[in-house]
From TrEMBL, chains A, B:
The organism of origin for this protein: Shewanella loihica (strain ATCC BAA-1088 / PV-4)
Chief localization: membrane
Assigned keywords, A-Z: CBS domain, Cell membrane, Magnesium, Membrane, Metal-binding, Transmembrane, Transmembrane helix, Transport
Protein name per its UniProtKB record: Magnesium transporter MgtE
Origin: domain of life: Bacteria
GO terms of molecular function: magnesium ion transmembrane transporter activity; metal ion binding
Membrane topology: Multi-pass membrane protein
Amino acid sequence: MPIEVLDSETTDQRLNQLTQALGSGMFVHVRSMLHDMAASDIAFILESSPPRTRQVLWQLIDQQHTGEILDELGEELKDTLITQMSPERVAKAAEGMDTDDLAYILRSLPDSVFNQVLQSMTAQDRARVEQALSYPEDTAGSIMNTDTVTVRPDVTIDVILRYLRIRGELPDATDTLYVVDKRDSLLGGVRITDLLTCDPNASVREIMNDDLEGIPVGMDDGEVAQLFERHDWVSAPVVEEETNRLLGRITIDDIVDVIREDAEHSMMGMAGMDDDTDTFGPVVKSTLRRSLWLTINLFAALLAASVSNMFENTLEQFATIAILMTIVPSMGGVAGNQTLALVIRGIALGQIGQSNSRWLIGKELAIGFLNGLLWSMLVFAAVWLWKGDIALGGLIGGAMLINMTVAGLAGACIPLLLKKFNVDPALAGGMVLTTVTDVIGLFAFLGLATLFLLN
Amino acid sequence: MPIEVLDSETTDQRLNQLTQALGSGMFVHVRSMLHDMAASDIAFILESSPPRTRQVLWQLIDQQHTGEILDELGEELKDTLITQMSPERVAKAAEGMDTDDLAYILRSLPDSVFNQVLQSMTAQDRARVEQALSYPEDTAGSIMNTDTVTVRPDVTIDVILRYLRIRGELPDATDTLYVVDKRDSLLGGVRITDLLTCDPNASVREIMNDDLEGIPVGMDDGEVAQLFERHDWVSAPVVEEETNRLLGRITIDDIVDVIREDAEHSMMGMAGMDDDTDTFGPVVKSTLRRSLWLTINLFAALLAASVSNMFENTLEQFATIAILMTIVPSMGGVAGNQTLALVIRGIALGQIGQSNSRWLIGKELAIGFLNGLLWSMLVFAAVWLWKGDIALGGLIGGAMLINMTVAGLAGACIPLLLKKFNVDPALAGGMVLTTVTDVIGLFAFLGLATLFLLN
């Protein structure tokens, strides 16, 4: 029987079918549809549904799959659903979850519920959780699982093959068995595929890869992701830094999540949004979550207005200046944002360090200046043609040159400085930059105009 | 001998050491340092170096590793280096490359060089390339490799184990053997780990997973990445759509690249940059690459200025209006960009379809209106306090309410409309949105001011 080829439209179609079935009140039908779906598909459908549909769907889901589904959800939605669950249901869901995800969920619970959930767990689960909670968020420890399969260096491959046959199924994404000594120190690894192709009489020591490097448990998860990307790993062992003791392993599926989250963080951050923002979240909650950024922007806009305010005299006498004054900040903002996006990505990829940041700043300054020359000439020509005033063209051109040079410099320096002071450049960079280019742009144009036109 | 724990500072330190060694002209030392490094680390160091350092490093690299290193580089840098290489060297580099990367490199060559490179290849390599070139870019076919290991359903596991031992090493990231019939149609898969744990006398048919779904060769690579993420796959088979014939397989390392590129595309695109922009590229080339976006922005800024121009009378009489007129577009731009980022991410993740886009637009419109109410009151109060003019506060508050409501609507509709017309929302969305919020913001504020103050 030939198997079916994947249909790319499947998920959207399913979503449509579910929505229609819910709309016509066919709850039994919906329940049986949900029963046949994988946890990851249910999670995707929950993510893509408006709040009311979500509530109904969540009621209709089999209780025993709750844990798996929660595993796959984005943070904001996960938090929302968990806070509505009873402690007993959370504890029950916890049974089916990976240790790293369990730790995440427990961290987000209020203290009282946290303790209740812990009480309702079996002793074994409680031990797993306590261990997982001991590693800080966003480190290798927090995305690690403890399901490693270890072997000793002096046994033969044949013994291992027999052991595995008795042991039965291996954990998902197991591509390497780890070789450890008596004190659990990592000595190397044996690839599963090598077990199949090598001589069964060889010893582990003979075929093991002793270049295998352990990831220190405290390493930042973004750095771990870079290592996975660079070395095309499927899984990697995690060790205690001082003793090299094997603590667990990280698998590529968790790394994919880290990469996705970090990349979304940069993109959403530059627009002033959290990367875990729920696309289909409720209105009032969403409104409040976006307020902080708008508050900051109001101050930035008032600051820019107060710069214009300094030149009230000039604006009173020349309405044309007022008409043209938004052009210079706008061009500076766009040019600065280009540099900013490039530098933020470079920082996120770990490309920018001590040895090359000075060169990069110099390069962006040069680009800013060249851009400034180019666009000051163009805007000079445009304004001269439009307003028939060559002096006005010269003024706006001069202001443009100043502002775009500053934009290049600021776009490169601001994220590097923010990083030095441990402020997230993706989040704060855009707002700081736009404020700088607005203020400098207005100051340059209105200042030059006051200097040359008012005398 | 215990193996070393990975040091997170390693790469930056190495880069520093290399830069210093190059600075003092110790080329022999640099060459031997490069000799000991993995291709992926050399690629990373090339990416992180200014052009001059790159040139020197590139000369010092072992010729036989060129292909592997090119594999790992970003597109812009890859193109730059390839155009400087002789066709013979490109052909030689091609020998060490994966088929999918080879196809990419050949696509980017000028026709004359392309033919020269093809001539200098062995017949076998030429066949591989021609096959790879037959699949369009950004499809499953273009990121697929042909190194699948296939078995027949009626043999026993024991036979397979013996076959693998004779065959020797398996391709990287092989976690599944594919089961095919006589006509190479995909029937299912046998996991490598199951080979180790199951009864050797069982037949393939008994232990194979026949739910395994083949990816159609023409599927968009972003959709393939979503499937990998949702199902935590390490590799997946690619099939011809009609016949279900097995053509190759996609591995997680290529998917990680797709995810990284797509996410960077959204982030860089919103700032008007290509995702393959080289952070340390040369100045003049970088300046030119950024011009298009600035040209478009100049037109947008002139459009906004021409709106102000319509209200020259008002601006002539009230300088305060000119001072305050940048606040409304600024707040609208930030609010609209928040919605835009959310919707672009939702589209990229495949969350937004027919069934929920109307709900989403309604939600963002509601958030825009609520935000508008909130901020119109705040800005009303701020302007009243600052300028001591209650009417002026009312005017700017009214304009703010209009502009922020429009911003919410535009932020949701623009990317959805652009997608409908097959324009990339990540690239064009931000510019279209800012133009809308600038024009509507100025029009609302200056229009209301003209209406109420000029009479």
